[in-house]
Amino acid sequence: MAKLSKTARIYAVVQQIPAGCVATYGDIAKLAGLPRHARLVGYALHALPANSELPWYRVVNSQGQLSLGKLSPAGAAEQYDRLTSEGVTFTSQGRVPLKHYRWQPHPLAWEAFILNL
Fold it and tell me: For residue 1, what pLDDT band results from cuts at 50, 70 and 90?
């Protein structure tokens, strides 16, 4: 089986984030086998078509903040609404408490998944 492109690997990882959980751009990069490529994750998610079913909104920055605020206030509002509808709460500073909501797949299950990418 041919290896997936970097973008396809990123999308495959984002697809695995369960409802009610979040991951950081760096988490996604690392889990996709692309450590230190958090910006690439951002570029890949930015390139998604508007009608994409990929749960892009479950990806936040390393402080638990929504990164869309400066680029797209409407996008940030949509991300906030989607996350809160899944039960994710925000601190008074507008951050997702990563200690509570950060997705951490089981290492053995993840190793099996990533080998198939």
Answer: very low
Distance CA 11, CA 28 (A): 9
pTM: 0.92
Exposed / middle / buried, residue 113 (Cβ in 10 Å: 0-12, 13-18, 19+): middle
Average pLDDT, the chain: 92
pLDDT exceeds cutoff 50 at 19: yes
What CA–CA distance (Å, rounded) separates 30 from 17?
14
The 3-class secondary structure across 47-104, one letter per residue, is CCCCCCCCCHHHEECCCCCCCCCCCCHHHHHHHHHHHHHCCCCCCCCCCCCHHHHECC
